[in-house]
Design brief:
Penicillin binding protein transpeptidase fold, Beta-lactamase, 5-stranded antiparallel beta sheet, 2 domains, alpha+beta, 678 residues
């Protein structure tokens, strides 16, 4: 049978000897493609962007057990044949004939390598002949160890992983050098059919295939029978679902799209760039954990109350920025990247509610008022659309009478904010917001005081970070610098600051926002036991919950809501839904940091001789929108194919080139008033 098969093969090779074979000399110049390496703020490797996820490992660093396992199951006579195993071909032909279908392949490791490196995956007889001829040439020119090294680094092992190192990290979250025998057997069983034996998707089939590999290793004397039995009993031990994607998936996805748009695909995936980011992995993991736990708590509070067809789990986003540099230290763009790749931290525009009020108070402080000036918290109405009247309300339904600006901001009093905006004018407030980094379109009417205009978490957190930096706004930065394959600097982002508001005004507002933590709507944050300033925000029907706050050296923002506008649940205010996430995050970040205090107010107070007197109410502006300044052309959408239709995307903040997201319907008309939070 062997002689007949060998004769048939020889005749076929003679008759069909190919004349268009590629030269195997290319292997002498073979070098794995160099993707883009991405580093954290401490210069530790975060990930690598590659067209194919592949990490080359020399044969000497691949465990002997893995080499033995692959040989046992793929090509037991690898070190004996000359590239084509006639016995293997005969055995496979007989097995396939007996079963009436293809149950066994006759290709050697060298033939598989030839196919991967030089040929297309079609199943024609001509391709098999070419494969055999190339395998013979490869064996004639290169050592067995060199061929095995290339095979173990080239073979596809499922879920985007090429080569054993990438597969070890994909399935087990570890290096190939640290694999155990059960893990080795699982990887060795994958080349035959990675999708069919995927341990993620088909764990029982993966266990069965692993057992087969262990049996083959025992039969060939690589391991003992007790070792094989013990390895079969071990659970698969896969990376848990929440870790199957690299940490910071939203940050890295944004980064990959931005870099590819800037440098092109060839340089990005083959040019060996090194990108040094601002991301802190420890802070990132803390942010991801805090958001996940916070959203689970909200979901648990409303279990069983969701409407048919609606997801109970809300979405959320977290952003952490270093005020003095603008460095983004953590970015979480959603509850689950696998469920939705839409980056809500950068692209989603939502009404900030009372979190916008600080801009109104900043405008008043710049105009000469102080925190001790009085504003009258009493009923007021304004003519709105024909035949209608707008009557802003306070969340608690109470009227306090004359109160200081300090108390009004601490307790998030709606009527006071509206009256103050009417006094200082929307143009002044919009100007302040623009200087602090808000580029989204802003409503030119009195509802602006209550956060009726959509903004992004990135914009709002950047603005609050400027307050922490004594009024100096730093452009948010995700990349510190980029080098090419020779280590030459090709891009550098040096922190660039501009004074948005004076240090005196920024410091005064910071102390007013400290009051919101000490006595007001964010009083829960006192648990941190250190100086903190910040503001809650909630929108109508409890659809959006915000908290943005800061210490002297760190600013963080949290948003919680559903992609499609609907309530989070009764009483899910910024103080209840967003603030606990912020507290959980900052507690971990600040645990081992010294307590810092804000700049002193000494010499900053400018009391007015008389309380502020407001004129009689006038009609609000007719609802026009003040457009944002021109922005650079957006890059391609970053929303994944499974992303729901989110709010309209925001314009960019340099040097972050924000891609254009998905369009959304215009906000519902008839904005009434944002609740104040307690």
């Amino acid at each position: 049978m062997v002689l007949l098969t060998g004769g048939a093969l020889a005749a076929a090779v003679y008759a069909l000897w190919p004349t268009d074979l590629p030269s195997v000399k290319a292997l002498e110049e073979y070098a794995p493609s160099l993707g883009t390496r991405v580093y954290a703020d401490d210069d530790e490797l975060l990930t690598e962007f590659q067209a194919e996820r592949r990490i080359f490992v020399p044969l000497r660093e691949i465990p002997r057990g893995l080499r033995d396992a692959v040989i046992a199951v793929e090509d037991a006579r690898f070190y004996s044949h000359q590239g084509v195993d006639l016995r293997g071909v005969a055995r496979a032909a007989y097995a396939n004939f007996r079963h009436g279908r293809i149950v066994e392949g006759g290709s050697t490791i060298t033939q598989q390598l030839a196919k991967v490196l030089f040929l297309t995956p079609d199943r024609s007889f001509e391709r098999k002949v070419k494969e055999a001829v190339l395998a013979l040439e490869l064996e004639n020119r290169y050592s067995k160890d060199r061929l095995l090294e290339l095979y173990l680094n080239q073979i596809y092992l499922g879920h985007g992983a090429y080569g054993v190192e990438a597969a070890a990290r994909t399935y087990f979250g570890t290096s190939v050098r640290e694999l155990t025998l059960p893990q080795i057997a699982l990887l060795a069983g994958l080349p035959r059919a990675p999708a069919s034996y995927s341990p993620f998707d088909r764990p029982e089939l993966a266990k069965s295939r692993r057992a087969h590999v262990l049996d083959r290793m025992h039969q060939l004397g690589y391991i003992s029978e007790p070792e094989a039995r013990a390895a079969k009993r071990v659970p698969l031990g896969l990376v848990p679902p929440e870790r199957r994607r690299t940490t910071a998936p939203y940050f890295l996805e944004y980064l990959e799209r931005t870099l590819e748009a800037k440098y092109g695909s060839d340089l990005m995936y083959k040019g060996g760039l090194s990108v040094y980011t601002t991301l802190n992995p420890v802070t990132q993991r803390m942010a991801e954990a805090a958001l996940r736990q916070g959203l689970e708590a909200i979901t648990a509070r409303h279990a069983g109350k969701e409407s048919a067809g609606q997801s109970a789990m809300p979405q959320g986003a977290v952003l952490v920025i270093e005020p003095q540099t603008g460095y983004i230290k953590a970015l979480v763009g959603g509850a689950d990247f696998a469920r939705s790749e839409f980056n809500r931290a950068i692209h989603a525009r939502r009404q900030p509610g009372s979190a916008f009020k600080p801009f109104v108070y900043l405008a008043a402080l710049e105009a000469g008022w102080t925190s001790t000036d009085l504003v009258d918290d009493s009923p007021v109405s304004f003519p709105a659309s024909p035949g209608k009247v707008w009557e802003p309300e306070n969340y608690d339904g109470k009227f306090r009478g004359p109160i200081t600006l300090q108390q009004a901001l601490e307790e998030s009093v709606n009527i006071a904010a509206v009256k103050l905006l009417r006094e200082v004018g929307t143009a002044r407030v919009v100007d302040v917001a623009r200087r602090l980094g808000i580029q989204s379109p802003l409503q030119d009417n009195l509802t602006l005081a209550l956060g009726s205009s959509d903004v992004t978490l990135l914009e709002l957190t950047t603005a609050y970070a400027a307050l922490a930096n004594q009024g100096v706004r730093m452009d948010p930065i995700a990349v510190r610098y980029v080098t090419d394959v020779q280590g030459r600097l090709i891009e550098e982002n040096i922190p660039q600051g501009s004074e948005a508001v004076s240090p005196a005004v920024a410091t005064l507002l910071t102390h007013m926002l400290r009051g919101a933590v000490e006595r007001g709507t964010a009083i829960q944050a006192r648990v941190l036991g250190r100086p903190v300033a910040g503001k809650t925000g909630t929108t109508n029907d409890f659809s959006d919950a915000w908290f943005v706050g800061y210490t002297p050296s760190l600013a963080a923002g949290v948003w919680v809501g559903h992609d499609r506008l609907r309530t989070l649940g009764r009483e899910e205010t910024g103080a209840r839904a967003a603030l606990p996430i912020w507290i959980a995050l900052m507690r971990e970040i600040l645990k081992h940091r010294p307590v810092e205090d804000f700049s002193s107010l000494d010499g900053l107070a400018r009391p007015r001789p008389e309380p502020l007197t407001l004129p009689a109410p006038t009609a609000p502006a007719p609802g026009a929108t003040l457009a944002a300044p021109p922005a650079p052309a957006p890059a391609p959408s970053a929303a994944g194919p499974s992303a729901p239709v989110p709010p309209a995307p925001a314009p960019p903040l340099p040097p972050l080139v924000v891609p254009k997201g998905l369009e959304a319907p215009a906000p519902a008309p008839g904005f009434e008033s944002s609740p104040s939070e307690r």
